[in-house]
Amino acid sequence: MKSGLAGKIDFVIVVGTLFCASIVLAQPAAGPLDIQGLDQFSVAGVRSRAMGGTAIANANDASALFSNPAALSRLNSFEIRMSGLLGNTARQQTQEWVPYMSNPGLSVLFESLTGTIPTAMDSLGTPLSGWKAVQRQYDNIGPNWNRSSSGVQPLSLAAALPLTIAGISMTAAIGAAQAMNLDHYYQNNNALSPYLGQLRPDPKTITKPMDTVNAQWYKYIRERKGIVYGITPGISISLLQGLTVGASATVLTGSSDDNEQRVERGHLYVATNNKATANDFMLDTVYYQQSKTGTSSYTGKMFAVGFLLQQDRYSIGVTIKPSYTLTRSWEREVTSLDTTRKSFPVRIDSLTTRSYHESGKENLNFPLAYSFGIILTPTDKWTIAFDYEVRGLANMELTGSTFTSSSHPWVNNYGIMRFGAEYRPGSMIALRGGYHEDIQSFSPDGSAVIDEPARGGIYSLGAGIVFDNILIDLAYEYSLLKYEDIYQSNVNYNKKEQHRFMVELAYRF
Question: Which of 44, 125, 149, 300 could bond 66 through an S-S bridge, CB–CB 3.0 to 4.6 Å?
Answer without folding.
Answer: 44
